[in-house]
Amino acid sequence: DCRQYTNRSCEECLKNVTCLWCASSRRCMEYPVRRILPPADLCELRSARWGVCWVNFEALIIAMSVVGGALLIMLGVCCCCCCCKKKSKRQVSGGPDKDDERAAREREKRRVRQEERRAEMKSRHDEIRRKYGTV
């Protein structure tokens, strides 16, 4: 039972992980597990200690908010950098639309050259057939 450590020390109270130490009233009590933060009528956040005696809930909330905010900012910056890098790569390479257009023009040029070669070969073969009278 956590109440037996009331009016003793924070360290003794917090040896049991289910206990919450209230520094202002020097009370040791069961941590209210149904709530994330202890209610103000039980103990003020700046006086509440859980897990370790040197960190109060108020400082813990502020520190977690700062760390969480910093992580969100870093994630946003990384996303922006990745997007900018992809945009610049697309612009340097001509983008997917320009690449597709270029490839289509190349295919069309090859097709036209191939048709010209076929026509040329056909005319040569026809000429040879006429020369030897096979037509």
From TrEMBL:
Residues 87-135 are annotated as: Disordered. The gene is Pttg1ip_1. It is a single-pass type I membrane protein. The keyword Transmembrane helix applies. InterPro entries: PSI, PTTG1IP. Residues 1-54 form the PSI domain. It comes from Gymnorhina tibicen. It is found in: Membrane. The keyword Nucleotide-binding does not apply. One of its GO terms (cellular component) is nucleus. The chain crosses the membrane at residues 59-84. PANTHER family: PITUITARY TUMOR-TRANSFORMING GENE 1 PROTEIN-INTERACTING PROTEIN, PROTEIN CBG20567. This is PTTG protein. Residues 96-135 have a biased composition (Basic and acidic residues). GO terms for biological process: protein import into nucleus. Its main location: membrane. Keywords: Glycoprotein, Membrane, Signal, Transmembrane, Transmembrane helix.
